[in-house]
Amino acid sequence: MTDSPTAPEENDAQTPAVAQQPHPWAALAPDRFRLLRLAPLPTDRDTGTRPLRFVELAQVERHTPEQSLLRLFIRIPGQVLSKQQNLLEVWADHRAKELRFGPDSGLHVEPINRGLGRFLLAQGAAWAQRRWAHYLVEGGALPVKDIIGEDARLRRDHCLLSQGFDVVYAEPQKPKATYSAARVSALRPDWNIEKVQIIELQEAAAMLEQADRNLLEQENRIRDTHERLSKLRREDGTLRFTIACLIVFSLFQAGLLIWIATR
After folding, report:
1. CA-CA distances (angstroms) from residue 21 to 18, 26, 34?
2. Handedness of CA 102, 129, 161, 172 (dihedral sign)
3. Rounded distance, CA 227 to CA 231, Å?
4. Rounded CA separation 92/71 (Å)
5. DSSP for residue 107
6. What is the torsional sign of CA 148, 180, 189, 85?
7. Residue 47: is it exposed, middle or buried by C-beta count within 10 angstroms (0-12/13-18/19+)?
8. Is the pTM for the entire model greater than 0.85?
9. Residues 147, 175: contact at Cβ < 8 Å?
10. pLDDT at 15
11. Strand, helix or coil at 263?
């Protein structure tokens, strides 16, 4: 009797690995834009200088009977950031009546220590409270690798606590912590407007017009200054020529007097 080879089960051999499909809203592009003014602040020993800056707030939102999404972007002119930076997502699950903040990698804001973290969380809270203030808030773990020092940890905790979240450490003196909130109504939709200001279209136009007037005034002052300098240079040249003539005349007179005296 001969043994025939055993064929592998067809179901196991022909079952492909099912890749997880991305969410239909994963690649949504923003469709609304606003201008943000970052007020100049004193130099910080950890984050360095904090000059006046203008950045762009871009956002997009979608709704279905099952879920809703608000995605906020902070764009910095002339600077390219990774897709996970300056991004906040707010997901509302209408079936579970729950709100979730994302992305899962955490909120990474650039430039740091300018009030943008609180601003983004406040925008997300205000958006959710207009519709679903009674929803629960899904908490989560706070990333440990993003904390590069004690000051950074304190800034992160202050940002979350100021917006109505609770920060709980598993053990004292340990970096691992979680954030949570009871309901959407417990979150705070305000932020430090002295650090971050929303510039409306008319305000931006007025600022540009004022800047243009200031530039024109500066150009007029510079032109007047150049004209005065040119006039002073001409007068200085005239005085130098006069002084040179007086010196030559004085030397001639002195020589003439000496010649007369010796004769």
Report:
1. 9, 10, 32
2. negative
3. 6
4. 12
5. -
6. positive
7. middle
8. no
9. yes
10. 46
11. coil
Q: Residue 218 is inside which H or E element, if any?
A: helix 201-262
Residue 19 has a pLDDT of 58
Residue 142: burial class (beta carbons within 10 Å; 0-12, 13-18, 19+): buried
> From start to end of 80-150, where are the E strands?
87-93, 98-102, 136-142
Mean pLDDT of successive 10-residue stretches along the chain, which has 263 residues: 42 51 86 93 88 94 95 91 90 96 88 93 96 94 79 89 93 82 95 93 84 90 90 87 90 86 79
Among 164, 157, 202, smallest CA distance to 182 is for 164
As to burial, measured by CB atoms within 10 angstroms (0-12 exposed, 13-18 middle, 19+ buried), residue 164 is buried
List 33's β-bridge partners, or say none.
Answer: 58
Sequence-ordered strand ranges (E) for 64-213: 67-75, 87-93, 98-102, 136-142, 166-169, 177-183, 196-199
Contact criterion met (CB below 8 Å) for 25 and 62: yes
Name the DSSP class of 114.
Answer: S
CA distances from 111 to 52, 73, 78, 193 (A): 12, 13, 13, 16
> CA 218, CA 209: separation in Å to the nearest integer?
14
| Residue 253, number of CB atoms within 10 A of its CB | 10
Does residue 24 have a cis bond before it (omega within 30 degrees)? no
Edge to edge, the sheet with strand 67-75 lists 166-169, 177-183, 136-142, 98-102, 87-93, 67-75, 53-63, 32-38, 196-199
C-alpha to C-alpha distances, 246 to 21, 250, 252, 257, 258, nearest whole angstrom? 95, 6, 10, 16, 18
The neighbour count for residue 118, using CB atoms within 10 Å, is 21
Q: Which two tokens stand for residue 173?
A: 């003196």
